[in-house]
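Lecture notes, structural biology module. Today: joint structure prediction for complexes of two components.
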Amino acid sequence: MSASWTARAKDLGFRALLLGCVGLCVLLLGLLLVDIVRDGAGQLSFDFLNSFASTNAGQAGVEAALTGTLWLMGICAVFIVPVGVASAIYLEEYADSTKWWNRLIEVNIQNLAAVPSIVYGILGLAFLVRGPLSLGNVVLAGGLTLGLLVLPVVIIAGREAIRAVPPSIREGSLALGATKWQTIWKQVLPASIPGIATGVILALSRAIGETAPLIVVGAATFIAFNPEGLDSQFTALPIQIFDWISRPSNDVNNYKPLAAGGILVLMILLMAMNAVAIWLRNRYERKW
Amino acid sequence: MEAAAASAAAQRAVPVIGAARRRWGETAIRGLLFVAAMISVLTTTGIVVSLLRETIVFFKSVGLFEYLFGTVWTPTFEPASFGVLPLLVGTFLICGIAMLVAVPLGLAAAIYLSEYARPPVRKTVKPVLELLAGVPTIVFGYFALTYFTPNILKDILGLHIDVFNALAAGIIMGFMIVPTVASISEDAMSAVPQSLREGAFGLGASKLHVSLRIVFPAALSGIVASIVLGVSRAVGETMIVLVAAGQVASLSANPNLPHYTITSFIGAQAKGDIPTGSVEYKTIFALGMTLFLITLVMNLISIRFVRKYRQVYE
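The predicted structure, tokenised, for the full assembly:
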């Protein structure tokens, strides 16, 4: 071999450096998980899931936060599924990308995906909580704010799923006399549902951990009841965790394990959602 | 006469292609879908309108010059002062620390995944790295405050550091941004045609040379895009700084001390229920506008760079 000894040593060194960098990231992730499990595992119990917030750290639990989070996710899903899928269908099947307004929509969605989440909170505060809609700091306003925040994720995933359906399917359907909408509704959408569902779950798993926009739209930190309707005040898991982290702990009331316990509940929900997404992708993924 | 009639008949015999009649249902559906797609445009409009309305009110009482170049940020104390510089210093100090972590680690991961890793290794390493982007940021904040600062920075590295400090927030934020830098850079590196690599190998170049002198420059626009997007993420990140970086608006660039950022100030103010029209309320919108403009410029730069590398090789 012509490669000199030093060149090969450098090559090996570089490879080790790259592996070291990747290893460092994995190490940090591992440390984080171990730290949280160690701090919070002792909290996980039936009582923790079934108790409301309390100034007495020994009795506090996540019930209101957990149900609040489930309400938020429900509202968010009801909003993002129809709007996101309809936008994706429009952009992939109808939009003529030479028209300036369609290009505007595309660049706009790309940009929205990178707008800081706290800015969505400000939008929610100005338009949903106060201002035109004046809903107040209720669970509906929180859910819609999160919905707007993750809408680009659903649209982008939906477009990819629709694009993956080969044109021959559409052409076959059109040739048999179906209209454009019949083709989309009966052929294209059913074939792209797994991809869309994966996108929706990923969007929800981003929404479930968002804290900053909920702080701004006024999720309350001390709520000792579950939401009773769309116009109910609410708290959510990340908000409850944030509250526990910010409380000064002392010997009588130590809030740190509570925060870690809340984080564990949140991470378990997240992992369950991701597992469903991965299962969906593997189960229904289809090569044309 | 007869010939003309025959040709007219022939013309009539040509079948009509296309819809026999206008389908109003189809048109209505198309309209509905367009309306749905416009919701995202309305979101942007809503953001701009809501920010602008209160920002204009804000600048009626505070001079633009005072805001941009003032060095004291005490909007809620007497005497109130609205110089945003301390917040910008905090924001870009933490962002800078984050990028010092995210750029080398992210690019190393990208080169490893695109040039070195065999497909099965790639298939396991990539999702593990992506997990870093999936962890809720409040969790990173908790980790930075309760583990990274006391156990790693203080005990292992022996730094004299505050409980709340910019360094831990910045480093942890850097790890959060690694997947952003890595995945866009890796996309760009994978888009570099194989023939370029083969040409270099044919001339006797080592893998190190090919990675750094062929693939890296060829993918540069994508790499720049990933870094700019990473900066935009770092500037907009709220919870890590709000939890771990403390709440002091200062011009100091000492990373061992607590620092406010634009986002953490908004978060800290919004925690209480702020009355509409109050100073705090207007301040939040002015800061939101500042943040939106900074990230908007970066996002547009990043979108442009991504388009550039796509045009070259696809």
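Point to remember: The first helix of chain B runs from residue 2 to 13.
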